[in-house]
Design brief:
The chain has 13 helices and 12 strands. With 300 residues, the protein is an alpha/beta fold. About 5% of the residues have low confidence. It is found in: Cell envelope. Belongs to the bacterial solute-binding protein 8 family.
Length: 300
């Protein structure tokens, strides 16, 4: 009964009337045009990329979602204290969002386009089109919505400088090593290709991918019989959630895994899922670059 009342209340909230003068700033986004506050004070974010981007821009949301069964990303632990959970990415809790009295909601059409009308009646809502591969464009949109476009551009410039420096340092060693990306998700083994967050970072550096991942799509979904397709100069692998609920241990103990050249050379490295896959923002990208510098530039 309470939930039904809240939904009815949300549906009754007045939105900005067509033709009414915007007293803040007009933002163009995936769902149209929205009048946002000149300086938002109470921001709610509904995806991990928006959380990362807002924090990178110096704005601490009052509320945020998490990945199912997960806390806020570990690499953001020191920055997320006091942020209220408002459900999961798949199921934002409208009651909790409403109770926080936000003046701006940030999300994306891919995740929450269907509930945009309800969200926009709670507060001005700005949505990117999608996630992952467009994380840089999404950062710029978040920056615009928060009135921090200059800061967003500075973050991207800093990222690009680091990418260039790493590419030059690796190139000075004679060749750029190939990199394989493997993620274990309950019920799935994924070989990440180019159309995702980590794929953009590897492409920016110029790191080649093995044939199994050298395509402009999100991922290949494979079985253990295709472990050989994981091989490259380096293998970086991670597990989403509880690794015991995935095929991680089965693969690591498989004879085919032990035959991989990267494994035999000590170049199969487990990395943190939180920032390599879940983060999808500038803070996560910076952490990934830290890892790549440490692993790829260490003395052979």
């Amino acid at each position: 009964m309470k939930r039904a009342w809240v939904l009815l209340f949300v549906a009754s909230l007045a939105t900005t009337a067509l033709g009414q003068t915007c007293q803040g700033r007009l933002i163009q986004h995936a769902m149209g045009e929205t009048c946002v506050p000149k300086v938002a004070q109470r921001v709610v974010v509904l995806d991990t990329g928006e959380l990362d981007s807002a924090l990178a821009l110096g704005v601490k949301p009052v509320g945020a979602v998490t990945a199912p069964g997960q806390p806020f990303q570990g690499y953001l632990l020191s920055l997320t204290e006091g942020i209220q959970s408002v459900g999961t990415i798949q199921q934002p809790n409208l009651e909790k969002i409403l109770a926080l009295k936000p003046d701006l909601i940030l999300s994306n059409k891919l995740r929450h386009g269907q509930i945009y009308p309800q969200l926009s009646r709670i507060a001005p809502t700005v949505m990117a089109e999608t996630v992952g591969v467009v994380w840089k464009e999404n950062l710029l949109l978040v920056g615009e919505a928060l009135g921090r476009s200059t800061q967003a551009k500075v973050l991207l410039a800093q990222y690009q400088r680091r990418v260039t420096q790493l590419r030059n340092r690796l190139g000075g060693r004679g060749h750029l090593p190939s990199v394989s990306m493997v993620r274990f998700v309950p019920g799935q083994i994924r070989l990440y290709c180019k159309a995702n967050f980590i794929g953009t970072i590897l492409a920016d550096i110029g790191l080649p991918r093995p044939k199994s991942q050298d395509s402009d799509k999100f991922a290949e979904f494979i079985s253990q019989e295709r472990i050989a397709d994981m091989d490259a100069d380096y293998i970086f692998y991670a597990a989403y959630g509880d690794p015991n609920q995935t095929e991680l241990n089965a693969v690591l103990n498989h004879p085919l895994w032990r035959r991989l050249s990267a494994v035999q050379r000590g170049r199969a490295i487990r990395v943190e899922d939180d920032h390599w896959y879940l983060g999808i923002g500038p803070l996560a990208a910076s952490q990934v670059l830290d890892d790549l510098e440490r692993f790829l530039l260490r003395t052979p």
